[in-house]
Design brief:
By secondary structure, the chain is an alpha/beta fold. The protein folds into four domains: 254 residues, Rossmann fold; 187 residues, 3-Layer(aba) Sandwich (Rossmann fold); 88 residues; 76 residues, no CATH class. Helix content is 43%, strand content 13%. The strands form five sheets. It has a nine-stranded mixed β-sheet with strand order 1-2-17-16-7-6-3-4-5, sandwiched between helices. Helix 6 packs antiparallel against helix 8 and helix 15 crosses helix 21. The chain is globular and about 105 Å long. The chain starts with a helix and ends in a 14-residue tail after the last helix.
């Protein structure tokens, strides 16, 4: 490269149009930063007070009452306009404060607007207040690492995705030592309040911190965050106080846009089944929302599989005077058959392609897999307790883990055969593919949960689907329908009588738009024999090329493309819904702090309805907790909410399955949700699951829901 070339490149890079074109900041980012979310009417008031709402009832877990005595009997608190009755209360609202914020767990779109809301409200109440952000999640609290959040920093990240401003982490404050370190950090910084933005476990941490720091006068407020959408709050009377956690809508829209693109690809290339695994370890909310957004051909919902009953098997058993208990609960084998049925139906109508959605945690709802997980969790926890060693450290390889299980089933390891893991378990487990065995034996996550994200769920299922489709193909039951017009096209290129040929090779000739080759014709050899038997050709003749072409059109070639949607959605920019939701959550959190609340989760009621009806609340975290097994021990945690299979959203998906499978002539019913964007006016206002679930078929039949 010459000196002249270098100079010209420098001039090129310094050209103002070039600088604009490749700048880090583009027009979309500028639009996002400039966007001002709407605020709930309550926040237009100078003073905001809290009013207890004992009408919202919860059953308090005895253990929560025991471990969290100072916050367990908190009431739901509603934000109301007006100043406190006394001057001291008014002064307290406007006092100078030190408030710290921490992100905990995986990122979710909208987190920065929680910070923006808290910052704006705190500075409005008292410009001298300081807002701090702990770096890298709870680890920042333990190590006293933080940054002061300034107006410039807030403005940089307004309406932007991720948790980039102060980062996040998965450390847990789950021991006396860690609690002591956290207390020392908070006292050392002279904090008035700590806001924890996280999921169910992070808000559980918030409750214990609120209890530990209450005597020090340090308030702790939680914010519901998870793209999985499994933090939902319902009272004992069934009233919804929080319909969905923030980040869910943005992630679902990001996934849906990508899946919609695959629908376009599938219907263009006509040769792939795109298999989309969607994040959601416990609940299938994201899979359901993405299905409603895109109208893919097949969607598995784990919660539905958990209650599955094979009525045909029950009837067969009843005829024999027996009860087939294996008919209750879905098995992997039967699940693969259901998927095969859908694939075969589409293929019969000329569509040997499609798109399906599988939730990440679908295996958790498969009865036989759940039994394995429970047994293995118990064995691992028992080993760790008895030997005071870590099972996964002791047994590094899959072979060593399998050998331990074999010895356990024979009574060699623990002196007697284990009642948990017997020879039958060993036999069934050994039938599983090695990669699946390894997946079931992976180290549990920090919460003691089985890590479904570490298992190639889609590979396990689709390998079984592929194997069964091969069997169906060999039996002549998996065929691609040949469209009548294609058959006529090839017949024009031969002297064979179409009627004779059609009746010879097709099992439904003249009965539909797509012709299916007879089951017994599964190869060129069997095709030729059928033609010979019909007198169309002789033994010495070759199969005519047009007839051979028709046969080849009927032979399915099952090809899949596997996709995982998770981290890309977590890192998506937030939708306007999430921007507005989270900003109001931040304002709510400050109002709770300014009124002395602690141990409360900031939520917005009526998210599923018009914005004008949104109602900010503080919900007692302790009343949301119950005992659950973690790492082999019972621990207080917030219960996750799974898909309600009696909800409008699920029932609509169920009702539309046949239509969206589109196993018939004509185009598919794919829906294009569009990307997450700020430019333009067609952005959807909220998740479709919320829209559908908010509709009362009787009272709302004349109303039109928001977009």
């Amino acid at each position: 490269m010459t000196a002249t070339d270098i100079i010209s490149i420098e001039k090129l890079l310094n050209h103002p149009k070039i600088e604009t074109a490749i700048a880090d900041i583009n027009s979309e980012t500028l639009d996002r930063r400039a966007f001002v979310p709407k605020i709930c009417q309550i926040f237009s008031n100078k003073f905001i007070s809290l009013e207890d709402q004992p009408k919202y009832r919860f059953t308090i877990d005895r253990e929560a009452e025991k471990q969290l005595p100072d916050i367990a009997h908190n009431n739901v608190q509603k934000l109301i306009p007006g100043a406190p009755d006394n001057e001291a209360g008014q002064n307290y609202f406007f006092k100078k404060r030190n408030i710290a914020i921490v992100f905990s767990g995986g990122p979710a779109p909208g987190g920065h607007n929680v910070v923006s809301g808290i910052f704006d409200a705190a500075k409005k109440a008292n410009p001298e207040s300081r807002i701090l952000g702990f770096i890298l999640g709870p680890e920042g609290i333990l190590e006293n690492r933080y940054v002061e959040i300034t107006a410039e920093l807030v403005d940089t990240y307004r309406n932007m995705g991720g948790f980039t401003m102060i980062k996040t982490g998965r450390s847990k404050i789950d021991s006396k030592q860690k609690m002591t370190l956290s207390r020392e950090t908070c006292l050392g910084l002279n904090l008035d309040a700590l806001v924890i933005v996280g999921g169910d476990d992070s808000n559980t941490n918030a409750a214990f911190l609120a209890q530990a720091l209450k005597a020090d006068g340090i308030q702790v407020i939680g914010i519901p965050k998870t793209i999985d959408g499994d933090i939902q709050i319902h009272t004992e009377d069934g009233e919804t106080l929080c319909a969905i956690s923030f980040g869910f809508h943005s992630a679902a829209r990001a996934f849906s846009q990508n899946i919609s693109n695959l629908c376009t690809d599938a219907s263009s290339d006509l040769k792939y089944w795109h298999v989309c695994k969607v994040m959601g370890r416990v609940a299938s909310h994201l899979a359901l929302e993405a299905a409603l957004q895109t109208h893919v051909n097949l969607t598995l919902i784990g919660e539905e599989l958990a209650d599955y009953v094979d009525h045909e098997r029950l009837k067969k058993a009843q005829k024999k005077g027996e009860v087939d208990y294996t008919a209750y609960g879905m098995t992997l084998r039967h699940l693969s058959r259901l998927i095969c049925d859908a694939i075969v139906k589409r293929a019969e109508n000329g569509k040997n392609y499609g798109v399906m959605i599988i939730p990440e945690g679908v295996l958790e709802f498969i009865n036989e897999i759940q039994i394995f997980i429970i047994k293995l969790n118990t064995i691992i926890a028992h080993y760790n307790q008895i030997h005071d060693l870590d099972f996964h450290t002791t047994f590094h390889s899959l072979d060593s883990k399998l050998e331990y299980l074999r010895r356990l089933s024979r009574g060699i390891t623990e002196n007697q055969a284990s009642p948990i893991w017997n020879a039958r378990d060993d036999e069934l487990f050994n039938d599983l593919p090695s990669f699946f065995q390894e997946g079931l034996l992976v180290e549990r996550d920090t919460h003691g949960n089985f890590q479904f994200s570490q298992v190639n769920t889609e590979k396990i299922i689709m390998d079984m689907v592929g194997d069964y489709l091969h069997i169906l193909k060999e039996k002549g039951e998996y065929k691609v329908g040949v469209e009548e017009s294609r058959f006529n096209y090839f017949m024009e290129r031969t002297n064979i009588d179409p009627e004779l040929l059609g009746k010879t090779i097709f099992r439904n000739y003249r009965e539909g738009r797509y012709y299916l080759v007879k089951k017994k014709i599964i190869s060129v050899k069997t095709l030729k024999q059928a033609l010979v038997n019909a007198g169309i050709i002789t033994e010495s003749d070759k199969v005519p090329d047009p007839v051979l072409a028709i046969f080849k059109k009927s032979v399915p070639n099952f090809k899949t493309q596997i996709h995982f949607y998770g981290y890309d959605g977590r890192g998506s920019n937030p939708t306007k819904f999430d921007c507005t939701y989270t900003y109001n959550l931040g304002l709510t959190a400050f109002s709770l702090i300014a009124n002395g609340a602690t141990g409360q989760m900031a939520v917005i009621k009526n998210l599923e309805h018009h914005f004008d009806t949104w109602e900010p609340l503080g919900v007692p975290i302790a009343k949301l907790m119950h005992l659950e097994e973690r790492k082999g021990k019972l621990a207080l945690v917030i219960e996750k909410n799974v898909v309600d299979i009696s909800s409008n959203a699920f029932l609509i998906l169920q009702a539309m399955r046949e239509k969206w499978l589109a196993a018939e002539h004509g185009e598919d019913h794919y829906r294009k949700p569009g990307p997450v964007r700020f430019q333009g006016k067609s952005e959807e206002n909220k998740p479709l699951t919320l829209v559908l679930n908010s509709i009362n078929p009787i009272s709302d039949r004349h109303s039109v829901p928001e977009k």
